[in-house]
Structure formats: structure tokens, C-alpha cells
Amino acid sequence: MDAKTYESMQGIGKTGQALEKFGEEQNQLNQKLLKQIRILELQNNLLNRQMQEVQAELAKLKETQVRILLKLGKCEAETEILKQESKKSEKDAVLENLKREINRLKLTAKLNTNAIERLTKDPHEDDENNQD
Fold first, then answer.
1. pLDDT digit string (tens) for 38-77?
2. d(Cα 130, Cα 125) in Å, to the nearest integer?
3. CB atoms within 10 A of CB 27
4. C-alpha 46, offset from chain centre
5. Per-residue H/E/C for 14-27
6. Is the Cβ–Cβ distance between 6 and 29 less than 8 Å?
7. Rounded distance between C-alpha atoms, residue 116 and residue 75, angstroms
8. pTM, to two decimals
9. Inter-residue contact 33 to 27 (CB < 8 Å)
10. What are the residue ranges of helices labelled H in the chain?
11. d(Cα 53, Cα 121) in Å, to the nearest integer?
12. How many CA atoms lie within 13 A of 86 on its CB side?
């Protein structure tokens, strides 16, 4: 990119001199603008590289997020299974307690029945049975 747009033609009189002065000032302005454009292009390139780095980092973070979400889903499923197993264990414990209570009541009932039979039994029957 060339900053010079005016080429001196060595014009005649004041018009030529004014035009030459204007052309030279325009060339200086063009050089300054070209310098600023190059600086802006360098800054733009730097920003593009930084943006690419950020996008790469963002992609890595998204992958990490997906992995974490998958692990979280797995953990939630395992937690649900453990809750269900815990409920089952609690139910099993309750059932076991009920079975023990039923067995205790059966034993109590049997002992009570035996005691009632002994109390209601004629005491003479035992003597007759022992004599035989």
C-alpha cells in the first residue's frame, strides 16, 4: 500500500505551488493514516489470535462441562439406586421386626395356652396318668 497519492509536476505560478503544497500535505496525511491502519491491522490480528485461544479454551470448558454433567447424571442415578436399596433395607428391617414380634406373640400365646390348660385341667387326671 503506497501512501503517496500526489506526484509533483512543477506547475506554473501560484496554482501549481498551491496544488503542490496541498499534494504534499495530503501525502503526509496518507502516511499517518497508513501507519494507523497498519497498527490497527496488527491489533486486529492480535485480537483474532486471542479470540481463537479463548474459543479453544471455551471448547475445552464445554467438553469438561459435558463430562461433569455425565458424571453428575451417573451419580444421581447411583444415589437413586441407593435410596431405593435403603428403602428396601428399611422395609426388610421392618419386616424382620414384625416377624420377631409375631414369633414372640405366638410363643406367648402358646405359653398362655399351656398355662391355661394346666390351670383348667383337673388335678386328679395327672394323678391317674401317673398311676398308670
1. 999 999 999 999 999 999 999 999 999 999 999 999 999 9
2. 9
3. 17
4. 33
5. HHHHHHHHHHHHHH
6. no
7. 60
8. 0.48
9. no
10. 13-120, 123-131
11. 100
12. 6
Which residues are CB-neighbours of 10 under 8 A, at least 6 positions away?
Answer: 16, 20
Ramachandran sector of residue 32 (left: φ over 0; alpha: ψ -120 to 50; beta: rest): alpha
Q: How far apart are the first and last CA of the chain?
A: 138
* AA letter at 35: K
6: CB partners within 8 A, 6+ apart: 20, 22, 23, 24, 26, 27
**Range in 41-45, 60-64, 78-82, 89-93 with the lowest mean pLDDT:** 89-93
Contact predicate 6/26, CB 8 Å: yes
CA dihedral defined by 118, 121, 123, 124, rounded to 10 degrees? -140
State the cell numbers at 72: 453428575
